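Question thread 4412

I'm putting together a teaching handout and wanted feedback from people who do this every day. The idea is simple: show students a protein as raw sequence, then show them the structure tokens that encode its fold, then repeat with a second protein so they can compare. Below is the first pair exactly as I plan to print it.
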Amino acid sequence: MRTALYLRVSTIHQKPDLQADGLRRYAASAGLEIVGEYLDVAVSGRKEGRPQLQTLMRAARNHEFACVLVWKFDRFARSVSHLLSTLEEFNHLGVRFISVQDQVDTGSPMGKAIFTIIGAMAESLNF
């Protein structure tokens, strides 16, 4: 499955090596083909306007990959509303989303159930 990696570090002093190595190992063990890596450096996870995240989203809309792999939810988004809206868009695009450390895979039955529950809770809380 064609897969994109998304990585983010909060400061220029942090290295993405732990994330990158872990994501590459996971992809190899799961038989995922890495076709792109998107890294935002020194950008807050609360900002939706991160350059590499925007590039990743354009690539997703162009169907350049079928899966997005992240190390943890907080590396992808710090805002619940942003996370949910992005996951909803991925769902509509048919893009699988895997958070390795959080053990959530929207392509699995359990991951789909978790996504549905989180989405329903967010909707009831007006996120």
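The second pair follows. I'd like the answer to focus on this one:
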Amino acid sequence: MNRPMIPDRIVLLLIVVAVLLPITLCVVLGVAALLTQMGDAAGGAVLHRIALAGGILWVIDLICLVLTLAIGSLRGPDEE
């Protein structure tokens, strides 16, 4: 039996981050909008920047996930 080129834990971690990061981004953007409407423009701006950084991390995570799955598919079918 061939060992996978990329461990399953890495793939699982990338999937968990890909699922949880958009939820976190929605919460951060919601709090940023709330702070802005309450008159705290500086706090809202900071949270918007944090959300932007989180969005960039999410895109990087999705690219890594696609590349990881593509590399994993190169090894071919498992032998019995």
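Top answer:
Good format. For the second protein you could add a caption like this: Residues 32 and 47 are 5 Å apart (CA to CA). The chain has one domain: 8-73.
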